[in-house]
C-alpha cells in the first residue's frame, strides 16, 4: 500500500492544534466531519450561556434590553464584519434565519431594480445553489412577475466568471451566488464575480453560509452589494442560531425591506402610528432579535479574531489537502472519486467524495461514531472545521470509510 503522511507529524507541527481542546467533546473518540453543518460548541460558550441565564436574563430581566441586548445585533454584526467578512462597521446585523434574510434582501433588491429600470426582470441563480436560495428565488419571481435565469455549473465545480458573464445583461435585476458551494465546495471568485454583476448593472447577493470563518471574505473590497450567512456552521453558534445580513452602506437608504417590523423602526419604543425605517443597517431588522445564539457565535468570532483568518484558511487548506491525499491513496482503488476542486485556490472548507454506496456507507459510519454527511445523489461530504478538527481525526475517519467500502466489496 502506498504511504500517506503520518497524521501525528502533521498535528505536531500544526500551529493551531491546541485550540481543538477548547471545544466541547474534543476528547471523545467521535470523528466529526460535519462542523460545516453544525459546528461543535466552545467550552467557554457553555459557561457564558450559564452566566447569561443566571445574571443577565435572570438578574436584569426585562431591563437587559435597554442595558445591552438591543445593541447586540449590530454590535456583534460589526465584530463579525471586521473579523470574518471584510466589512466596515454599520453594514452587518444579526437576527432571523438565513432563509428570512435571503427573502428580505432578495425582495428589497429586485424591487429597487424594478423601480429604477423596469426592464430588469430576471433573477440569476445556479442549479447547484442551496435549496432554500433556489426556492426563494422561485417564490419571489412568482410574486413579482419576474423570470429566473439558471446557470448550470459542472458537478465538481461552481459558478465561474465565464458562466456568469454569459448569464447576466441588461435584463438582470439580481444575481444570487454562493461563495462556497455546499455540495462541491467550489470557492467562487468573490471579487471577479461581483465585478461582472456590477458591470452588468445587476445587484449581487452573496450567500456565505459555507464560507464564513472557513475562507477569507472581503465584501467591501469586492464591492459587494448584499450578503447573508449562517452562524451555526463554521461560526459555531448552535442549532438554529441567528444568521447575519450585510447591506453595503451606499445601498441602505435605497432599499426597502418587505418585513417592516417594529425592530426596524426609527424609534422602537415610540410605538408610533406609522412605520418609519431606522437609519442604517437597523432598518433591515424585523422582530425581536434572538440573543442566546448570537452570544454563542460571538465566542467563535473571538477565537477567530485571536487566531486570525489567514491562519484559519491555511489550516483549512492543509486539512482538505490531506483528506484528498488519503482519498486518492486509499479510496480511489475502491471506486471513490473526489468531487471537489483539487486546486486549493478554488476549494472551500470541505471535500466531497463520490461513490454509488455513499448512502449506506454514511449510515454505517454514523453508527460507528464517524460523522460525515450524505448529499444527493451519491456524495459523502467530509466537513473539516479548521479549529476543531485534527489531522488524526481525518486519518481515522477516512480509514473508517475505507473499511466500510472494503467490507461491502
Ligand atoms: C445552511 C445553508 C442555508 C440554511 O438556511 P437556514 O435558513 O439557516 O435554514 C442556506 N443557504 C446555504 C448556502 C446554506 O449552506
From TrEMBL:
Pathway where it operates: Amino-acid degradation; L-kynurenine degradation; L-alanine and anthranilate from L-kynurenine: step 1/1; Cofactor biosynthesis; NAD(+) biosynthesis; quinolinate from L-kynurenine: step 2/3
Keyword Hydrolase among UniProt keywords: yes
Single GO MF descriptor: kynureninase activity
Keywords: Hydrolase, Pyridine nucleotide biosynthesis, Pyridoxal phosphate
GO cellular component terms listed in the entry, alphabetical order: cytoplasm
Annotated Pfam families: KYNU_C (PF22580)
Residue ranges that the Swiss-Prot or TrEMBL entry lists as coiled coil: none
Gene3D superfamilies, per the entry: Aspartate Aminotransferase, domain 1, Type I PLP-dependent aspartate aminotransferase-like (Major domain)
Enzyme Commission identifier(s): 3.7.1.3
Catalyzed reaction equations: 3-hydroxy-L-kynurenine + H2O = 3-hydroxyanthranilate + L-alanine + H(+); L-kynurenine + H2O = anthranilate + L-alanine + H(+)
Oligomer status and interactors: Homodimer.
PANTHER family: KYNURENINASE
Family: Belongs to the kynureninase family.
Function statement: Catalyzes the cleavage of L-kynurenine (L-Kyn) and L-3-hydroxykynurenine (L-3OHKyn) into anthranilic acid (AA) and 3-hydroxyanthranilic acid (3-OHAA), respectively.
Protein name: Kynureninase
Amino acid at each position: 500500500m502506498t504511504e500517506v503522511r503520518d497524521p501525528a507529524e502533521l498535528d505536531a507541527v500544526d500551529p493551531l492544534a491546541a485550540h481543538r481542546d477548547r471545544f466541547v467533546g474534543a476528547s471523545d473518540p467521535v470523528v466529526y466531519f460535519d462542523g460545516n453543518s453544525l459546528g461543535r460548541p466552545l467550552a467557554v460558550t457553555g459557561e457564558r450561556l450559564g452566566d447569561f441565564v443566571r445574571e443577565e436574563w435572570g438578574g436584569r430581566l426585562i431591563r437587559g434590553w435597554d442595558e445591552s441586548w438591543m445593541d447586540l445585533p449590530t454590535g456583534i454584526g460589526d465584530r463579525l464584519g471586521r473579523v470574518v467578512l471584510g466589512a466596515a462597521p454599520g453594514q452587518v446585523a444579526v437576527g432571523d434565519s438565513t432563509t428570512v434574510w435571503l427573502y428580505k434582501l432578495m425582495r428589497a433588491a429586485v424591487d429597487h431594480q424594478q423601480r429604477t429600470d423596469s426592464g430588469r426582470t430576471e433573477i440569476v441563480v445556479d442549479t447547484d445553489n442551496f435549496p432554500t436560495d433556489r426556492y426563494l428565488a422561485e417564490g419571489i419571481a412568482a410574486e413579482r412577475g419576474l423570470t429566473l435565469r439558471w446557470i448550470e455549473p459542472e458537478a465538481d465545480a461552481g459558478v465561474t466568471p465565464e458562466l456568469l458573464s454569459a448569464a447576466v445583461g441588461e435584463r438582470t435585476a439580481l444575481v444570487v451566488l454562493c461563495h462556497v458551494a455546499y455540495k462541491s465546495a467550489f470557492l467562487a471568485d468573490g471579487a471577479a464575480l461581483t465585478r461582472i454583476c456590477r458591470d452588468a448593472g445587476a445587484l449581487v447577493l452573496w450567500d456565505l453560509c459555507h464560507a464564513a470563518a472557513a475562507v477569507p471574505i472581503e465584501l467591501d473590497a469586492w464591492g459587494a452589494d448584499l450578503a447573508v450567512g449562517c452562524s451555526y456552521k463554521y461560526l459555531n453558534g448552535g442549532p438554529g442560531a441567528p444568521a447575519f445580513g450585510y447591506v453595503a452602506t451606499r445601498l441602505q437608504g435605497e432599499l426597502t425591506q418587505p418585513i417592516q417590523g417594529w425592530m426596524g423602526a426609527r424609534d422602537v419604543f415610540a410605538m408610533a402610528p406609522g412605520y418609519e425605517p431606522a437609519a442604517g443597517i437597523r432598518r433591515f431588522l424585523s422582530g425581536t432579535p434572538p440573543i442566546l445564539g448570537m452570544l454563542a457565535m460571538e465566542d467563535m468570532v473571538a477565537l477567530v479574531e485571536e487566531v486570525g483568518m489567514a491562519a484559519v484558511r491555511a489550516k483549512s487548506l492543509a486539512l482538505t489537502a490531506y483528506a484528498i491525499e488519503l482519498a486518492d491513496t486509499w479510496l480511489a482503488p475502491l471506486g471513490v472519486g473526489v468531487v471537489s476542486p483539487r486546486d486549493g485556490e478554488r476549494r472551500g472548507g470541505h471535500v466531497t467524495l463520490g461513490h454509488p454506496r455513499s448512502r449506506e456507507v454514511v449510515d454505517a459510519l454514523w453508527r460507528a461514531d464517524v460523522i460525515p454527511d450524505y448529499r444527493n445523489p451519491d456524495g459523502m461530504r467530509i466537513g473539516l472545521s479548521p479549529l476543531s478538527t485534527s489531522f488524526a481525526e481525518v486519518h481515522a475517519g477516512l480509514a473508517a470509510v475505507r473499511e466500510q467500502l472494503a467490507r461491502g466489496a
